[in-house]
Amino acid sequence: SLKGKTAVITGSNSGIGLGIAWELARAGADVVLNSFTDREEDHALADEIARETGVYARYIKADMSKGDDCRALIESAGTCDILVNNAGIQHVAPIDEFPVDKWDAIIAINMNSAFHTTAAALPMMRKAGWGRVVNIASAHGLTASPYKAAYVAAKHGVVGMTKTVALETAQEPITCNAICPGYVLTPLVEAQIPNTMEKYDMGREEVIKQVMLERQPSKEFATVEQLGGTCVFLCSDAAAQITGTTISVDGGWTAL
Ligand code: NAD
């Protein structure tokens, strides 16, 4: 059980981050939700997790595109035994047309934020004598697709940082790993299905298997619960010697 541990999950008011927060809370960890929005609904999500699982859950606003905010998130949490770097955005364009502001935002949110939060959290983990850093990279941390230069660069960067942090903490009871999801069924992805059905004049199943999951051999989406379960495993004693590596949850994408 993760009872008594505090987990900070960046970008966790929706999708994978929220799914991971739920599974960590079900495993007994207190959780800190985060986004840059600070809406009533964001705080309500934390209340719901606390009510359903009995853990202590709260929401802290911080903009992961800003280094100072990233560090302030960890400081405000007060303690951070489990750090899940999950916040991320995407923009798709050929590299010679890639908007500079989008490039900068993707590198900042998807990669630099993990540098700042990890730097702030490691001293807390050392003080507590236990720690887990789990970076949510992507199949695009291991392979590329056209038009995703910033995202692929940032996710490869996160995988590299994961290995470095693992080496720097290798002789301590701290591990650092990256989870590399393939296509995950999040509300964002679900919302794209009707439009894609119309665009290709296909049924739901056809669109999912032939268009969206073209590169995912299983032809099934990964789920946020499965990613949460993978994260809980990385926090378990069974995973204490797993460090500096990637775990793909991608239905075979990177085996192709
Ligand atoms: P999502 O859009 O549902 O979630 C992204 C989260 O990041 C949200 O909670 C959002 O509030 C937060 N966020 C965005 N910008 C932020 C900022 N500046 N400051 C703080 N929070 C911010 O998307 P998701 O699919 O759940 O993605 C989560 C992570 O998983 C991302 O890093 C993404 O790259 C990665 N991923 C997703 C998939 C997929 O198929 N959905 C596949 C591989 C990797």
Automatic annotation (TrEMBL):
Record organism: Dinoroseobacter shibae (strain DSM 16493 / NCIMB 14021 / DFL 12)
Key words, A-Z: Oxidoreductase
Entry EC no(s): 1.1.1.-
Name of the protein this chain belongs to: Short-chain dehydrogenase/reductase family protein
UniProt cross-references to InterPro entries, sorted A to Z: 3-OHbutyrate_DH, NAD(P)-bd_dom_sf, Sc_DH/Rdtase_CS, SDR, SDR_fam
Domain of life assignment: Bacteria
Pfam families: adh_short_C2
Gene3D superfamilies in UniProt: NAD(P)-binding Rossmann-like Domain
Protein family according to the UniProt entry: Belongs to the short-chain dehydrogenases/reductases (SDR) family.
GO molecular function, one term: 3-hydroxybutyrate dehydrogenase activity
GO annotation, biological process: monocarboxylic acid metabolic process
Keyword match Disulfide bond: no
Keyword Nucleus: no
